Amino acid sequence: MNEYFEQEFAASAQKRRAWGAALFLAAGIIWAVLAYQLMAPFSDGDDEYSSSSRTCQSVLFYEGDAPTWADATWDGCRAQRRWPEMLGWLGLSVPLSVAGAVLFTGGSTSLRMREYMAEHRIAAAAAAKTAAAKTGAEKAVAEKD
Q1: pLDDT tens per residue, range 9-42
Q2: Which among 3, 33, 108, 124 would be 20 to 30 A from 131, CA to CA?
């Protein structure tokens, strides 16, 4: 019965660790998409081959004194990179990463503690066996005398 509970404990810890990794991955994907949107140049139109679409400079890395999206004529560039929407996604990634950290750390710690306890049980059993063998040898010597 004890073996069954240990296996269930290990399966539960592995499941928690997997969920934590999945939540970390989801938060990482959100961060990667947001970083790309901030750093990559983009077009303000739906069709990049259209004559009416403009190439907009990246929000973070722009050339010149003022970025192209700061001018009133570049409303299309500003409409493509909406700050409230980007901050909303960033805000969503925070609880995902915190929950992922808690689940992954808890699962990993539980698995490591199970391994640690198993090592000590094996060492304790070996020590008990050695002590029993030593006691048996001492009894055999005492009986001869």
Answers
A1: 888 999 999 999 999 999 999 999 999 888 887 7
A2: 3
Query: Residue 135 domain-assigned?
Result: no
CA 14 to chain centroid: 14
Query: What domain range is 53 assigned to?
Result: 2-106
At 77 the three-state DSSP class reads helix
Q: List, in sequence order, every residue forming a beta bridge with 2; answer none if it has no partner.
A: none
- Degrees (nearest 5) of the Cα angle 47, 78, 67? 105
Contacts (Cβ under 8 Å, ≥6 apart) of 17:
103, 104, 106, 107, 108, 111
Whether 36 is in a domain gets the answer yes
Number of structural domains in the chain:
1
Residue-wise pLDDT for 72-129, tens only, equals 556 667 777 777 888 899 999 999 999 999 999 999 999 888 888 877 777 777 777 7
Give CA–CA dist 48/36, Å, rounded. Answer: 18
Nearest by Cα to 54 from 68, 43, 39, 70: 43
